[in-house]
Amino acid sequence: MRDVTGERETIARATGPAAPGVAGAGRSRRALRGALGATSGVLAGFAALAVAELVSVAVRPESSPVTAVGGAVIDRTPAGVKDFAIRTFGSQDKLALQLGILALLVLFALGLGLLALRRRRTGAAGVGVFGIVGAFAAVERPDAGALDAVPSVVGAVAGAAVLYLLAGRLTPVAAAEITAPAGDAGAPDGAGLPDGTGTRSAVPASFDRRGFALAAGVVVAGSTSAGIFGRRLNASRGAEAAASRAAVNLPAPASRAAPVPRGADLGIDGVDPFITPNQDFYRVDTALTVPRIDASTWKLRIHGTGVRRPVTLDFADLLNRKLIERHITLTCVSNQVGGSYAGNANWLGVPLAGLLREAGVRPPSRGGKADQLVARSQDGMTLGSPLETVMDGRDAMLAIGMNGEPLPFTHGFPVRMVVPGLYGYVSACKWLVDLELTTFDDYDVYWVKRDWAREAPVKTQSRIDTPKPLADLKPGTVRIAGVAWAQHRGIDRVEVRVDDGPWRTARLAEEDSRDTWRQWMWEWPATSGRHQLEVRATDRDGETQTAERVGTVPDGATGRHSVVVNVT
User: Fold this and answer.
1) What is residue 393's DSSP assignment?
2) CA Rg value for the chain
3) pLDDT digit string (tens) for 115-156?
């Protein structure tokens, strides 16, 4: 073949369309280059996240970009959207959020990879946006410091370098035009140089495939190693906390809970047991990464308005105090009518009112200056409880045990608050590290800033556990059963009706205390057809559960639970 690259401009004007085989090869190479460019973006994002995970070891696990961005999203999500997420995904709401963030990052990375094919520096610089977002989200968290931005920044620099490197391997070598002698078997019909002596076509631009494959392999191996190493190092911190939990020997309470009455659990299939096992107890919080605190280094500070003697306690101090043991039902304010975010456990802890009195705190009714107790968790969450309620004689406590074992990490180890009769968002602070006395006028806690009510006593509610919605039943006697709660008031009566008929009084299980839920059961003579079953409860104050349906915001849902069943 005769080289004519020096005459490319002249030949290009004289030449007709490229040979079909050459054009097809060119399209294939461009498609491959585009796919590898998009892959470069994803690999750069992977490298950025992996390096950031490794760097977070030197700061703290919560400073990793996905966790930081996820926390920022939670903080800025409207209450109604959060309520929807909890209702839709349940305890998997945080996993759903993290997967959503990763999906968006992948799309962003794909775009940057394609951009880098045309504008290599611009695409690499675009990774910096990832770093800016992660750094801003990290330092904006309630418990964050300036160093929390470092993992995102370092990860972004690494990702930018990876994208610049890989895009360079995809830079095409300049295309060449060649001629073939007339009559060459590879020459297209009718093509050739102007003098008819031969044929010509453009050789498709190529790129360094082998160099790209080698570089991509190094990136994958290095990023995977960095990510795994970072995860393991972060997990090692959790290992120390786990060891401290395993070493806890819960002392016997000075005041034991009364034995659970024999008839408190009706033993009906489908109805939640009277005591909720730890693994089944609901979890609703904003922590994407569960804090794992070493009990041997844990401290609690009690301070603020009206505190005459500030107190600092460690975990050993609590273990050496007189402990109380109580059965108490907790309920989340996000619980919909008929929802599952309620659970009953055997709690062990230190009476909270006594600790506050030791610090010189008095409730407002006795001339105290503070009316709000602000609890702060390790992850920066703040919850505000009415001081008058906490000190009115109920069994409010700093809990250290749950159902006979130290608190699980997901439920607040080493210490959490439990206050009977209040929704969790105003009382049940997990991973507790600070108690500050203040006033409602002077300080708005996390949820109050997001349009939830300052004070939120638990509302009287009841739930049908069996039969399930749209269950197929046989005519005859059918047990309708469930639970009802009105913490610190107690349940006085539960009633059931069918198809808007008369209310029928259900049989109540034995009451353990007014701070626990009660099971109930009614035997229904079921007849063929489609029927609606409805339940309502009345508390010891004489208040009957309202039929008015209201959502969870701002202070808990109202309405009556009902299910539809088929009897055939």
Assistant:
1) S
2) 33
3) 999 999 999 999 988 889 999 998 988 778 899 999 999 999
